[in-house]
Amino acid sequence: MFGRFLTTTAGRALGFGAAVAFAAWWSVTLFPERWAVRIPDNRHTYGIRVRGGVDLFFALPVGWVVDYALWIVFVLAIVTVLVEWVVRRRHGFTEAAIGQHDR
């Protein structure tokens, strides 16, 4: 119906990056008890307030992922769509032309 959506190398790389960032965020937020503590210590210094007013403290890189990964996913998704759109306009790709290579 839609043919291939990600037809360029840049689009595929950006889409893959968005998927990896989402997977990292999802794996940490699905099981926060594996990644966080409730009382800060020398290693877990990045505090985030979650549902119910509970403060969880993460290690710095993990806490940064929890805080900013969804923004990164949104930006990468938008840039992926823009890159695909620009390349298709520049090279005159259409859905019909893209689908011919799949046969």
Q: Can you characterise this structure?
A:
- This protein is an alpha+beta fold.
- The protein has one domain.
- Helices cover 62% and strands 15% of the residues.
- It has four helices and three strands, in the order H-H-E-E-E-H-H.
- A three-stranded antiparallel sheet has the order 1-3-2.
- Strand 2 (44-50) and strand 3 (54-59) form a beta hairpin.
- Helix 1 runs antiparallel to helix 3 (60-91).
- The mean pLDDT is 82.
Give a quick rundown of the structure:
The protein is 62% helix and 15% strand.
Task: Offer a few descriptive terms.
alpha+beta, three-stranded antiparallel beta sheet, 4 helices, 3 strands, 15% strand, rod-shaped
Strand content: 5-15%
Q: Sum up the overall morphology in one term.
A: rod-shaped
Distance between the termini: 14 Å
Secondary-structure element string: HHEEEHH
Radius of gyration using CA atoms only? 19 Å
Strand order of the largest sheet: 1-3-2
Biggest pleated-sheet summary: 3 strands, antiparallel
Mean pLDDT: 82
> How many separate domains make up the residues?
1
Helix and strand content put the structural class at alpha+beta
Q: What percent of the residues sit in helical stretches (DSSP H or I)? A: 55-70%
Question: Helical element count?
Answer: 4
Could you tell me the number of beta strands? Answer: 3
Spans of at least 5 consecutive residues with low confidence: none
